[in-house]
Amino acid sequence: MPYLISVIIPIYNSNKYLNKCITSVMNQSYKNLEIILVDDGSTDNSFSICEDLSKKDCRIKLIKKQNGGAASARNAGLDMATGEFIGFVDSDDYLEPTMYQELIMALYKYDCSVSKCLLRPIPCMKKEILFSEDKRLFLLSMGEVSVCNSLFRREKIMTLKFKEGVSYEDTLFMFSVLKCINNVAIVNKKLYNYCSHDNTTTSSPLKKKDLNKIEIYEEIESYFTDNCCNEKNVIKYLNNAKHTSLFDLVVKIANYGYDDTLSFYEIRSLVNKLSDLYKTNKIDILLNITLSWKKKSQIMLFALNPNLYIKIKKKYTIIRRGKNENEYHR
Fold it and tell me: Is the pTM of this model over 0.85?
């Protein structure tokens, strides 16, 4: 019998997207799944949707808990999981039908601890499957660190938990995984569809806890330095990941502002710090093949004139939202 994959889906007020998400897991070509739905204190009818779907598929297991955040919900799912392999899906995203089939095939083909596919927005690489014996490139590859496009051997993550009460818990978890694996296979196909909505944490004002992303990358750099990882390719991947990821903080300020956990002076300090970072590394950014020219242009404008970039981005966002709203009301 095929090995069991436990798929953990944390859920909070996702009723608009939940049916599509869960159905995409139920319809995977790899059938030996344990689908763990963790309702994290939803106040809409998300849990009712989960109950209805569980009646149609005996592979579904339900957990209902008090609200504690995505990290808490994932940890609850890990405690229940019994599969030899573990996967995660966010409740507003959906999968291509062959995702887990291809991820587990890649794991066995290369005898890896972790396999990953590409997220929908990430550009494809040249090879069908990129195999790396260097575990250090795992976290840094393609500049993204989501757990949702990954498949893990359970034995490698049994002692790990998601850190609760922080932002970017995915990055922290993957960094912990990095320390206890030897290799990784990356399937060069966009099999995980990431969907961004206005009610997600990525579409909300910048909070003080969001700044721990900077500390995370400083910790990663320190880890590489302490372990004598000064090879040029590792440094290149690290810089690519950092430059791409930290710019999300700038975009968040421009699009949604910041909340009352941050002062104007803290925001000004952050903007100046990131502007200096991009000025110093402008050549690396321009040569970064994982960045589109549109993104490179935005980063360069921000580096040269942060205030101008934020003003333009804010105006563009207001115009775009107004256009979308008009289309919605037609």
Answer: no
How do residues 30-84 score in pLDDT, each as one tens digit?
A: 999 999 999 999 999 999 999 999 999 999 999 999 999 999 999 999 999 999 9
Q: Are 119 and 189 in contact (CB under 8 A)?
A: no
Side chain identity at 153, as an amino acid letter?
R
User: How far is it, in rounded angstroms, from Cα 181 to Cα 134?
Assistant: 10
Q: Are 285 and 300 in contact (CB under 8 A)?
A: yes
CA distance 68 to 314: 32
Q: How many CB atoms lie within 10 A of CB 9?
A: 26
Per DSSP bridges, beta strands 94-95 and 85-88 are unpaired
Separation of first and last alpha carbons in the chain = 53
146 exposed, middle or buried (CB, 10 Å; 0-12, 13-18, 19+)? middle
| Helix ranges restricted to H, the chain | 18-26, 46-56, 70-80, 99-110, 136-140, 154-157, 169-178, 212-226, 232-256, 264-280, 282-287, 293-304, 306-329
Q: Tell me the Cα Rg of the chain.
A: 20
Q: What is the pLDDT of residues 254-302, one digit of tens each?
A: 988 999 999 999 999 999 999 999 999 999 889 887 678 988 999 999 9
Q: How far is residue 320 CA from its own chain's centroid?
A: 25
